[in-house]
Design goal:
GO terms for molecular function: S-adenosylmethionine-dependent methyltransferase activity. This is Methyltransferase domain-containing protein. Pfam families: Methyltransf_11. Keywords: Methyltransferase, Transferase. By secondary structure, the protein is α/β, with parallel strands linked by helices. It has a single domain, classed as 3-Layer(aba) Sandwich (Rossmann fold). It is built from 6 helices and 7 strands, in the order ααββαββαβααββ. 42% of the residues are buried.
Amino acid sequence: MTTQDLPDFPPEAFAKPDPAPDSLFYAQPRFVTHIDAAAIAAVTDLYRTVVPEGGIVLDLMSSWVSHLPDEVAYARVIGHGLNAAELAANPRLTQHFVQDLNAETNLPLETASVDAALMCVSVQYLQRPGAVLSEVARVLRPGAPVVISFSNRCFPTKAVAIWNALDGAGHAQLVGLYLQRAGFARIEGHALKPEGGPGDPMMAVIGWTAAG
């Protein structure tokens, strides 16, 4: 683990209560959803407005569902995750690869080859978020978005210490800082389902690469 991409954070900020490799934790498939139906619908609505129809989409830290709108067609949806069985069961994926981003941050994709990137309820597990999101910026085309959505739901033993220490507003600020450090030109926060209401809260932070 290293914080070379976020040098003003102490190393322990990205430690996990369970230090075992994430690949072991995710070795068994979990065919469940980690947020409720209303939160999923809110994420899908955001994707409907932000992710370009007919584009190439990278779904990072994905599983057996991608929450993309059913009625929208994309050229390709590239899935990434830690469990091959979950990815193989995802009907929206046209291809997928397995990679532990905490062990290897480089993405096996060409520069400026993707029209949108997604990361749903997973950013809290990244131990090198600056390096990973710099790679996301590299593979996105000019002016393309990365949509990072999150709730207060997670596996706390696998979330990094700084995430476990913050509230929802702090999570949004932290993700915005990650994107700023990774070089995204414009950053927007969205309260999709505010905290304090019924069901799971849902936030999103969108980073846009600089236009060409």
